[in-house]
């Protein structure tokens, strides 16, 4: 295990959080603030304690256990890159898995119909999309469905249009589908990422067959309005481009904003020209359970994608997802509010303590896209990166930040055009950890 300041990482995180907790409560730091694998974070008053630090180190966790391999010298301390949450999952999920585990047989599953019923209910009741059970296709991830859609509807001779900066996985998917991409960069106007409509339409050439509309947008956190979605949808219709709506972050929308499912837009032609991809893997931190789905109100489109789609899900994944849909709402509402407050905490912290870091207010997701271009200029990232064997100045900065603060962020260059000078930070962690992370980053950034 990697060492940090002479102690292992697990101990470090425990100590870091306890220091923060002691600071916040006048020294009442006890082992009770830490969750053991068997405990639940629900308190007697019905509230979940998201301040409680749930230690995920050494559980084959990409967010915490992958970066140390890059920094064997032990400088890595905080995994704020990969998009999974650090909270203990909703107790209803653990209970459902434990109950199923009492039956000691794991042969092939019979049906996913009850899971599809829950998906239809969740989307109908929470988001106002009217779905038929048979139009929902279960997949093992957004990846599998989207790659099938790309292969079927774009292929090697077509191209996929993407607003950037964009989720790095979209480029992985297009590579797997052997479909080239075309970027239309978002532009920052009055502190918000906006679509450059002129550029977008200019990029809608005849070889473009599909456009990915990521809503809420990863990594910027934008939540697109109904008007914006309709305008995209009508442009796509005019140019024979099918919309791939990736709505995996749809449940994380901040107060004052509203998620509009592409499939609920008030224009049937626009809706029928789209396929939506979703999951509750972000909502309930179930990414490792490999479950997602896609749907279209246009049976012909759906049929074409299905021809290229093959995915199988596991019994445990279905059990976990069904339990989350059925019984997890209360947990989710509380975690959503907690993260909303953590976004405010970060915004205020940056204003007060890291004024050189550029902040764009998030409307959704638990990610934030920070502009470190001033710090990068101060440390000569542009001049130094090649000499240090890095592919981009942002990768050089990623390593610099780990070596100077222990904090690992995702380099903006992963997210295509528009990612220069930026880093993506995941804030779905206990605020006790966030406070330590912010302090560590500030002391590194402010000293150059
Ligand atoms: C926008 C977006 N789409 C898709 C995915 C991956 O989805 P899955 O794990 O279901 O394949 C992610 C993961 O972070 C994401 O942010």
Model description:
The protein is of the alpha/beta class and 448 residues long. The protein folds into two domains: 204 residues, Aspartate Aminotransferase, domain 1; 215 residues, 3-Layer(aba) Sandwich (Aspartate Aminotransferase, domain 2), CATH 3.40.640.10. It is 40% helix and 14% strand. The chain is built from 17 helices and 16 strands. The protein has a seven-stranded mixed β-sheet, with helices on both faces. Strand 9, helix 9 and strand 10 form a beta-alpha-beta unit. The longest helix is centred in the C-terminal third of the chain and has 25 residues. The radius of gyration is 22 Å and the shape is globular. Bound molecules: pyridoxal-5'-phosphate (PLP).
Arithmetic mean of pLDDT: 92
What is the subunit organization of this protein? Answer: single chain
How far the N terminus sits from the C terminus, by CA atoms, comes to 31 Å
Supply the CATH superfamily name of the largest domain.
Type I PLP-dependent aspartate aminotransferase-like (Major domain)
How many domains? The number is: 2
Based on Cα principal axes, name the global outline.
globular
Q: Which second-level CATH architecture of the largest domain applies?
A: 3-Layer(aba) Sandwich
């Amino acid at each position: 295990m990697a060492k940090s300041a002479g102690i292992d990482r697990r101990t470090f995180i425990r100590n870091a959080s306890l220091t923060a907790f002691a600071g916040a409560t006048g020294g009442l730091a006890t082992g009770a603030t830490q969750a053991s694998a068997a405990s639940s974070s629900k308190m007697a008053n019905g509230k979940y304690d998201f301040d409680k630090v749930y230690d995920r180190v050494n559980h084959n966790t990409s967010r915490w256990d992958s970066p140390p391999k890059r920094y064997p010298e032990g400088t890595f301390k905080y995994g704020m890159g990969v998009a999974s949450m650090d909270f203990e999952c909703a107790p209803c999920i653990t209970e459902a898995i434990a109950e199923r585990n009492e039956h000691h047989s794991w042969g092939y599953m019979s049906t996913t119909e009850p899971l599809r019923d829950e998906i239809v209910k969740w989307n109908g009741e929470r988001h106002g999309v009217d779905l038929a059970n048979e139009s929902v296709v279960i997949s093992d991830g957004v990846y599998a469905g989207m790659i099938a859609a790309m292969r079927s509807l774009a292929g090697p001779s077509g191209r996929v249009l993407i607003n950037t900066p964009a989720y790095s996985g979209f480029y992985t998917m297009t590579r797997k589908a052997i479909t080239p991409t075309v970027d239309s960069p978002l532009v920052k106007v009055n502190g918000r990422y906006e679509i450059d409509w002129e550029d977008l339409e200019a990029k809608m050439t005849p070889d473009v067959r599909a456009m990915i509309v990521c809503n809420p947008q990863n990594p910027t956190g934008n939540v697109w309005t109904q008007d914006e979605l309709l305008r995209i949808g009508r442009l796509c219709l005019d140019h024979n481009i099918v919309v791939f709506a990736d709505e995996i972050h749809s449940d994380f929308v901040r107060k004052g904003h509203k998620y509009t499912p592409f499939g609920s837009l008030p224009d049937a032609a626009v809706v029928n020209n789209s396929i939506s991809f979703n999951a509750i893997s972000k909502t309930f931190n179930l990414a490792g359970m490999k479950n997602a789905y896609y749907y279209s109100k246009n049976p012909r489109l759906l049929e074409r994608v299905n021809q290229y789609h093959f995915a199988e899900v596991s019994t445990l994944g279905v059990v976990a997802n069904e339990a989350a849909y059925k019984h997890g709402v209360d947990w989710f509402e509380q975690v959503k509010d907690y993260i909303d407050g953590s976004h405010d905490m970060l915004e205020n912290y940056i204003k007060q303590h890291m004024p050189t870091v550029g902040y764009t207010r998030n409307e959704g997701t638990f990610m934030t896209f920070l502009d470190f271009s001033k710090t990068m200029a101060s440390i000569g990232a542009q001049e130094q990166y090649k000499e240090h064997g890095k592919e981009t100045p942002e990768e050089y900065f990623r390593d610099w930040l780990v070596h100077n603060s222990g904090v690992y962020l995702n380099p903006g260059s992963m997210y295509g055009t528009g990612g220069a000078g930026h880093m993506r930070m995941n804030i779905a962690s206990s605020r006790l950890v966030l406070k330590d992370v912010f302090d560590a980053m500030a002391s590194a950034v402010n000293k150059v």
